[in-house]
Please model this.
Amino acid sequence: MRGIRYIGILLVFVGVQTSSAQDIHFSQTENAHLNLNPALAGFNSDFNLSISYKTQWNPTLAPFKTYAFAGDGVLNSKSKSNWKFAMGGMMFKDQAGTPQLGTAQVNGFFASKVKLSESSYLGAGLFLGYRQISIEQMDGEWGSQFDGQIYDATILSGESFDKMRRSSFNSGLGVAYHFESGNKSKIQNNAKSVDLGFSVYNLNKPKNSFLTDSKDRLSHRYSAFIHSDLGLFGTILSLQPAVYYHRQGQFQEIVYGTALK
Model:
């Protein structure tokens, strides 16, 4: 996970959402930072590695499942230059419902950050990805297979798709800013820092339908966040309040809470 040099203990993580967006998302947003903002590749540490898994509605016959693997690192970490360059990669697979709708994507991340002063730096990044959606038509149960009393699998559904898979390219951009002050020593520990950023995913709005003549495209996703680290004087502890906001089309999500480090 990001920041593998310390252990975080979750105190409060309360989420409010009006509806699920089309993109994948995780409740522990800070641990899936490449899905939050491309500029966060190599932003706060020289090397990051994460594995994420989410499942929803397990009691149903077809629970939703999401897997993600990501890693990123600074290329010139030993350089004394005020410019740092980073690269990263992320792969994810999402399986939803019946008939099983699958989404798989592989992203490459490219980022840079510049030191503005002894206490602040600014970062920017982009990603280029290859996306594939698929559907298992044979797994579906369709309204046309209802005979008036019960569902009858022997009745032909009449459903037809031009393609069972569709591939496309994807892209996104992001910027992030970091500021810190105070003393990080274990005795004093009055250090304070704040990170904030803004990003846009699905810049090219890839096609999101299996029908050739469909105009359905994946909407832009706008993400913004603010995350702080507040040292508790005279202890080795700090509080980390944060707010994450996502908007995609008519849907939005807000996740906020506080962790103890």
Notes: The chain is about 0% helix and 50% strand. The longest strand covers residues 101-117. Residues 1-21 have pLDDT under 50 and may be disordered. The CA atoms of residues 93 and 202 lie 17 Å apart.
